[in-house]
Amino acid sequence: MALRLVADFDLGKDVLPWLRAQRAVSEASGAGSGGAGVLENDYESLHVLNVERNGNIIYTYKDDKGNVIFGLYDCQTRQNELLYTFEKDLQVFSCSVNSERTLLAASLVQSTKEGKRNELQPGSKCLTLLVEIHPVNNVKVLKAVDSYIWVQFLYPHIESHPLPENHLLLISEEKYIEQFRIHVAQEDGNRVVIKNSGHLPRDRIAEDFVWAQWDMSEQRLYYIDLKKSRSILKCIQFYADERYNLMFEVPLDISLSNSGFKLVNFGCDYHQDRDKFSKHLTLCVFTNHTGSLCVCYSPKCASWEQITYSVFYIHKGHSKTFTTSLENVGSHVTKGITFLNLDYYVAVYLPGHFFHLLNVQHPDLICHNLFLTGNNEMIDMLPHCPLQSLSGSLVLDCCSGKLYRALLSQSSLLQLLQNTCLDCEKMAALHCALYCGQGAQFLEGQIIQWISENVSACHSFDLIQEFIIASSYWSVYSETSNMDKLLPHSSVLTWNTEIPGITLVTEDIALPLMKVLSFKGYWEKLNSNLEYVKYAKPHFHYNNSVVRREWHNLISEEKTGKRRSAAYVRNILDNAVKLTPLLQEEDSHQRLLMGLMVSELKDHFLRHLQGVEKKKIEQMVLDYISKLLDLICHIVETSWRKHNLHSWVLHFNSRGSAAEFAVFHIMTRILEATNSLFLPLPPGFHTLHTILGVQCLPLHNLLHCIDSGVLLLTETAVIRLMKDLDNTEKNEKLKFSIIVRLPPLIGQKICRLWDHPMSSNIISRNHVTRLLQNYKKQPRNSMINKSSFSVEFLPLNYFIEILTDIESSNQALYPFEGHDNVDAEFVEEAALKHTAMLLGL
């Protein structure tokens, strides 16, 4: 399945054996029901009450006398500890322990068993206690009221030393939240007691709310109150220095006026009327370290035939409402939708029917979300019981008493990528898998292996292009919190194809009104995201349009010989040298493109990453572009190994095989992918591509690929071609066709390597053109010295004499011509050979 649940805690394995051992010791010592006590009905009453911020788990059970026993499982030491025994037959539904384990707060109600006498005071339904448990001493009644009360200790971020004051939240069914400030002191050594227990100071934190959620990891309280029938979401942040602030409020377009009262993550509630509360809406708030803020909402369903749920991407300024129809709806659909926080993703699923992975950071395109229906076997493997999503991807199964860590399964995502027929699922699975791996070479290798075998598997997008962009993005994503705004994570800008089984409506929403002036940590990132939504028009994502324009300008200048300052060009080329020591082959055009991309991307980061060191920015740029090049190399190497090619392929001595054609094809697809985004290619790519093209393509196809820019003739490839191929008629035609397509400077150099009349003719023409380009006709002696010429042909003799005179007078202009053995005599010989060839002599 796409979602993997790894058990961090299991009541049956981590607590039950310990309790049985405690019972055995108790019975052997004749202590009866002392110690851990004898459990009634073989541990049926054992269940989890709460998970605290430090990961410790509070559980409860009853002994054979009905006494309520509280225990704690330490997630660090993996040890159990008995906290307190309450000698009355009541039912616990809320409990919390302070970080020092010196105070315990609990709310209890009358036991639901028939025939049990009322243990509570007349007129009260709930008893809320505060107990000194280090050691067990005084018990203070905080509330004895006719409404439910939930309790939760605050956990300061600083846990290295105990604080003199503990803070306890009391959440009432009467729709108010209070904070008790509890001063403690040490007496008689380590004995901790409550000071002034008769009067504990308290503050009213919130009132008249209809929904509240506790974030135990970040110590935040979210709640919704109604103002003129509008649902206003608010958040209070609690700090280690005993302060708390109202951070923001934002209106939500949801109806809660008739929804009653709902709490989320205030412990594991076993006493509330489950039928009553299951009929209400599902609403929860999820955040992550990047500054995202999502509100997930599913209204009460009038019919299970169609499900609607919404996600408010508050950090993006819009909401998305999804609607899906259920097939084979049976009576077993009673649990409702489950939302799970998976950090970069939010999972929405209905057991046995559908599973939806929503990309929180990049929610704009539906193709980046993974939607699987009940027909997929991956759905059936998900738990069918209600799950409670806690902070940090923790998931609590209250029914079984298991605490899981929810992870995306790389192997399942890879399997889905390989097996699905839908482009949208391929796209989503690819991005999910890369997020899971984040640069893992083994994962990338598996994806590349699949791409090399299925390069044409996708029709809606370019698979190679998408993989290169997404994988390069994840390689530097963690370097700064704003990377998602500066670099593209996908090559796809729009997606108009429907996703089977689901419809979508996107709406703009109001942005939160921030209630504080200065921000730190998460709040700084959230505020940055909101500022980006307000003012970033257009968006900041980098693209190579400037590089494309500048590169074409420099190439044009090179051809015309009017290139700008040498220092500018040298600086650009030096940028490429910083990239890699992999410049095994000198490819000036690719080196120029790399250097330009380094320069432009560095300027882009410097503009938008205020406060980041210049050296770090430069390293991020180099890492990103190096990753691009490495991925391309990896794809080519994988295809090369897959087809078992060897180094002798690089010589023009045989017709291309099917394996060589397959590698040529994937290199052509790589070229198409990089060209549209104007990305650089590794040095040597064009040489290898051209060599394979010469061997695999008929001449007319080869020349068409050269003329259309699919094949780029590099100096290395052409030199190898001239040396490896003999001068058969077929090879002569190939060589000449390629030479005439070379840039003039490279063409002249190549012609000197080809010992052939045709190359001599080309060299001679170039030499004559250069000599005569500034020639001014002068009066000449009509008598020609015939003895100096090997052939008596007056037009040729006259022309050669002119060339000889120009060469003699212009030695200063062409001091190195003699090194190439190109002079008037060479021109004469070439002209005669060419004439003889034309006449068939």
Account of the protein in words:
The chain has 22 helices and 32 strands. Among the domains are: 1-113 and 122-207, no CATH class; 544-712, no CATH class; 776-839, no CATH class. The termini are far apart. The longest helix has 29 residues, at 614-642. Strands 19-15-16-17-18-32 form a 6-stranded mixed β-sheet, with no helix packed on it. The chain is 35% helix and 25% strand. By secondary structure, it is of the alpha+beta class. A hairpin with a 3-residue loop joins strand 12 and strand 13.
Q: Could you give the topology of this structure?
A:
Layout: E1 3-10, H1 11-28, E2 47-51, E3 57-62, E4 68-74, E5 79-86, E6 90-97, E7 103-110, E8 126-133, E9 136-145, E10 149-153, E11 165-172, E12 176-187, E13 191-194, E14 202-207, E15 209-215, E16 220-227, E17 230-238, E18 244-252, E19 262-264, H2 274-278, E20 282-287, E21 293-298, E22 306-313, E23 318-325, E24 338-342, E25 345-350, E26 354-359, E27 370-373, H3 377-380, E28 388-389, E29 394-397, E30 402-408, H4 410-419, H5 423-437, H6 441-453, H7 463-476, H8 483-486, E31 503-508, E32 513-514, H9 522-535, H10 545-560, H11 566-579, H12 588-608, H13 614-642, H14 658-677, H15 685-696, H16 699-707, H17 715-724, H18 729-739, H19 744-751, H20 757-772, H21 794-809, H22 824-839
Parallel strand pairs: 15-19
Antiparallel strand pairs: 1-30, 2-3, 3-4, 4-5, 6-7, 7-8, 8-9, 10-11, 11-12, 12-13, 12-14, 15-16, 16-17, 17-18, 18-32, 20-21, 21-22, 22-23, 23-31, 24-25, 25-26, 26-27, 28-29, 29-30
